[in-house]
Amino acid sequence: MITISLCLIVKNEEKTLRSCLSSVAKAVDEIIIVDTGSTDQTKSIASSFTDHIYDFKWIDDFSAARNFAFRQATKDYILWLDADDILKEEDCNKLITLKADLEPSVDSVTMFYNYAFDEFGTPTFRFKRNRLVKRVNQFKWIGAIHEYLEVSGNIVDSDITVTHCRIHTKSDRNLKIFQNRLLRGETFTPRDLYYFANELKDHNKYAKAIIYYNKFLANGKGWVEDEISSCSNLADCYHQLGNSEMELQSVFRSFQYDSPRAEFCCRLGYYFLTRKQYEPAVFWYKLASELQVPTHNLGFSNPKFSTWLPHLQLCVCYDHLGQHANAYKHNEIARTYRPKDRNILHNKKYLESVLHISDSSEAAE
């Protein structure tokens, strides 16, 4: 059986750290905590789980802190988390099983990351990350901000999910780090350009974000998933600025990088729906409903665009077209994903009255 070191970098995480460590402690053999300047009870909480607590002077470089944490690990494999992440019990048990069965020839194990959720607790932002890596390979973190772990070799995909439990409000910390790097005259990598644009967009600086997304795409050396995401974010920026023509162009621009993704099909469906062009809207929403969420890469995904959302919008389109039976069918499909959604339940009641469907007759079917 392999052994695992858990590595975290922390600062002022007293509200989340206990939950994080409690959720995974039984699955790991060593816990490494690297503190970058806490002024609350973070280190005291950490000390109830481990004696391996180290101080690291913060230098506006996440990779430097994470690489320092990795260097303190002594076990066969390193698992990394953030202090506001947890493993649910079923995922912790899966990790214990993986630990018992993992072949020593494996260099890295990917896990899903559920980063954001809707009001029903369904993930709305999900992707994979290399989470468990062989220590002797000395894989390094790259990038001062929005860092990534550069791995190679025998990589295994697992079905384990890490769950993000964010409680912090939006901060301008990352934006300031990027801005300070610009002031120092640093050259941005393609990845830097992409994430700087994301920070600008998140802080409602849409016009400037557009400039940096275009710089990133013009470079042509970025990860394809980031290029596709940039097209989506460009569409968001142009939408916020009221430029529907460029919003539409940004959607079609994504087709240069891959076959149409469900998200972009839904965007096109919405474009036509808002213009009361229901037939082309139906075409794009139907295509979205037939596409699968990509699972073969580490790209970001929002499952709603290929599950309940296109069916809900098809319900709207078919209702406008007078095809109420089709509207009802797609609303029912949407309801399988969101059985308590008020809009879907409202549609159900309305369409049942139009189609003269009673609960008893529906049950009989």
From TrEMBL:
InterPro entries: Glyco_trans_2-like (IPR001173), Nucleotide-diphossugar_trans (IPR029044), TPR-like_helical_dom_sf (IPR011990). CDD domains: Beta4Glucosyltransferase. It comes from Paenibacillus allorhizoplanae. Pfam families: Glycos_transf_2 (PF00535). Residues 5-124 form the Glycosyltransferase 2-like domain. This is Glycosyltransferase 2-like domain-containing protein. It comes from the Bacteria.
